[in-house]
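Appendix B. Raw example, untouched.
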Amino acid sequence: MTQISKLELKALVERLSLMYFGKNFNHDVFFNGHLRSTGGRMVFPKIGSRILKQKVFMEINPKLSDEDLPGIIKHELAHYDIFLTKGIHRENDRDFQNLLKQIDAPRYSPLHSQAKSFYIYRCTAAHHHEYSRHRKINLRKMRCGIDGATLKLVAEKHLK
């Protein structure tokens, strides 16, 4: 988890922008704790189909380590640079991938989504119907959908 302040983040983004792209990045940069598996994102606000260039901003995931932070910032700045030259683009565009190789920026986020887990419930009636769910359920409220018997948690499995 990175320990830098918002001002230090802004200074780092401006320094990397000048170093790798020769352009000033005169937009806001924020930490966004709601980001999960992505390292960051460039946000291009729209009104209708028109993009508001003066309101563009960058969001960075605060869960990134200090070693991964410059790479993710370079990746997001590559989005910004391609946007200025070409307009809206996609991650798998050839020119975007070539630019990432030139500036040695990662193509994918070093963060991974949380490990998947699921719960297996079994009916307490004679037939022992099984249900697997990604979320825990309230055993006082939920019943077997087939015969109406109570359920019990049998296993909790974690996948990577």
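End of appendix B.
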